[in-house]
Amino acid sequence: MSRPLRAGAEEYVAMRCALGHQMGNADTLMRFVAWCEARQIETVTTEAALVWASQEGRSSPQWKAQKLSMVRGLARHLAWTDPATQVPPAGLAPGGLFRPVPFIFTDAQVEDLISACRQVRMKPGKPGACAFLIGLLAATGMRISEACGLDVSDIGRADLPHGQAATTLAIRHAKNGSARTIPLHPTTAQAVLRRAADMPAGPEPMPLISVAGNRFKPSALRNHIWPQLLAAAGIDTEPVRPRIHCLRHCFAVKSLVSWYRTGAPDIDARIGWLSAYLGHANPANTYWYLQAVPELMALAAARAAKPWGTEQ
């Protein structure tokens, strides 16, 4: 039995977690190890990785490529101590990273989604929590898990230039174990403070978004409530299927549109600000969120048409 392979895989997962990676694919990686053990394969080989990725679980090209990528990371780690380890080359399976085309909501559609929370049949307390959650996602671009993980104690204040102050939210459980604090627009801050004031007294930490004292579950919103909201809001017939994660894309696009409208200088540099606000590890990831919607293209074209050095 390939105990060294399993031990090496467990060491690899532990090391990645210690470096801040969530390693949501750890179970899949350990299934590869179990598959190798069942066949008395004692080290990673390109052939074994390819056969396993082709046979195990889902068989879409994208998933096959992702599984090979997982094994490639493990093999690189093992190769330092086991010269017999083969690192599967990149591009061995077509597919790569698949990014669904995002749907960019209009302001009216976001309002319709919030209103639809009152039309869909839910347990007492859930319509209000759902409406607040969707409004918060649209106004801040945070991830669903980040919003559902907020506590009332995460609300804070920060000093701004010229003697001003802003209400903030501390996002403690972000992707890859990171954390950040984001300032809120005054209208969003008012809604957050009202929500906190309306929460019943209870043991700490008190979830900011909860139903009957229980934290709102992202899976319930994605799988059960969201399809009903789309139907109630009349947005379920669009050619591009709107996902709730698209509210995050929508925030990124509308931030850029706002900068163009107000003539903000050095917009390229502001992408770094947007990246930090969204919690991206690399600004390159933020560019994936920006879609060429007609309004944005028109504003960008008008700005580019102005003579070099003129006031924007």
The level 1 CATH classification of the largest domain is Mainly Alpha
What does the largest sheet look like?
3 strands, antiparallel
How much strand content do the residues show? 5-15%
N- to C-terminal separation? 68 Å
Q: What is the alpha-carbon Rg in Å?
A: 23 Å
Oligomeric state, counting identical vs distinct chains: single chain
Q: What CATH architecture label of the largest domain applies?
A: Orthogonal Bundle
Question: Care to count the β-strands?
Answer: 5
The global form is globular
Given helix and strand content, the structural type is: mainly alpha
**Secondary-structure element series:** HHHHHHHEEEHEEHHHHH
Proportion in helices: 40-55%
Number of helices: 13
* CATH level 4 superfamily of the largest domain: Intergrase catalytic core
Instruction: Give the low-pLDDT segments.
Output: none
Here the CATH topology of the largest domain equals hpI Integrase, Chain A
Mean pLDDT equals 83
| Domain module count | 3
